[in-house]
Write a structure and sequence with these properties.
InterPro entries: SGNH_hydro_sf. By secondary structure, the chain is of the alpha/beta class. It contains nine helices and ten strands. It has a single domain, classed as 3-Layer(aba) Sandwich (Rossmann fold), CATH 3.40.50.1110. The termini are far apart.
Length: 312
């Protein structure tokens, strides 16, 4: 575990978010117990859950929401991307519309995962001056919502009409998600921490306009979580299991509405991610010591050189 002193809103205090010590701070570089100071960059790929993780950090650290990370009119209108920069930590989010490689997508918002990942990494690198140290990705809710929307806001005739997804649908989803995570691996420098997070189970509703009316909501979210974990772990990604974290919490205490977790839960997630990043860095350092550090720096320099033409 990491013991830190942080500065938030000019008040010196111990990070109060989560039971794990945190490694994020605003106002000054992070001072770790080993005396090393560093700036970290974290990039999320996902939906409004991931946007709210970044926004919760920015509200806590700086007292305001995220800056836009894209000039795309739809992204700006719907707050699909955003970035928050402090002296010690940059946190950003880029939207991906689901695990489908070519749609159709919920509300026809065209943010297919492969080009969105490329654009997100380039935008982050331009804004922060370096590629992210850690990337966390998730997809699940927009997969379900997209099928509901393009089924005419009906479940009959879509993969959602049955309790269990068909083998054909599951195999297609796994194939697509493998392609997405492989593309992400190949888009960041060697040594970048890569994390997948599952999704919690939303509250089922009777509102016919909402995808959360899914009669098999629990089963469908859980099946996509299991498929996502399978792909992520096979490719060497770390996993943060929202489903397990939220299972022991009363919905009224955890959720702002029927789907979105409250800031305390989201900051706990960020806290866990940053501790994972710290441990990841320690392990890589132990494995390679100076050689690893040189490889890491060389890899980042090479990555920046190779992507220079795309970074504006």
């Amino acid at each position: 575990m990491v013991s830190l002193r942080v500065t938030i809103a000019a008040d010196a205090s111990t990070c109060g978010f989560g039971t794990l010590p945190g490694v994020w701070a605003a106002g000054a570089p992070v001072e770790r117990s080993d005396g090393i100071q560093q700036h970290l960059g974290i990039l999320f790929f996902g939906d409004s859950i991931d946007y709210r993780i970044a926004r919760s950090f920015c509200n806590a650290a700086l007292g305001h929401g995220l800056e836009h990370m894209s000039d795309d009119a739809i992204a700006i209108e719907h707050n699909l991307t955003g970035i928050c920069q402090t002296p010690s930590l940059t946190v950003a989010k880029q939207h991906i519309s689901s695990a489908s490689l070519d749609g159709p997508y919920w509300w026809d918002m065209e943010f297919p995962p492969l080009p969105s990942i490329t654009k997100g990494i380039e935008a982050f690198t331009t804004a922060d001056g370096a590629p992210p140290d850690a990337v966390m990705i998730a997809t699940n809710f927009w997969d379900i919502a997209g099928m509901f929307f393009h089924g005419g806001k009906q479940f009959e005739g879509t993969p959602l009409e049955h309790r269990m997804f068909s083998k054909e649908f599951s195999n297609s989803w796994i194939h697509n998600f493998t392609t997405i995570l492989t593309h992400l691996q190949e888009s960041v420098p060697e040594g970048t921490l890569l994390v997948y997070h599952t999704e919690h189970i939303p509250v089922q509703t009777t509102d016919p306009e909402k995808w959360e009316t899914d009669a098999f909501l629990y089963q469908h979210v859980a099946q996509l979580n299991a498929a996502g974990r399978h792909v992520a772990e096979n490719l060497g990604f770390q996993v943060i299991n929202f489903e397990a974290m939220a299972a022991q919490l009363p919905k009224d205490d955890m959720l702002d509405d029927i789907t979105h977790p409250k800031p305390d839960f989201l900051l706990q997630v960020l806290n866990m991610l940053l501790n994972m990043e710290h441990e990841h860095r320690r392990q890589l350092h132990r494995q390679g010591s100076l050689q690893h550090q040189q490889t890491r720096m060389t890899g980042r320099v090479r990555w920046l050189q190779n992507h220079h033409g795309h970074l504006g």
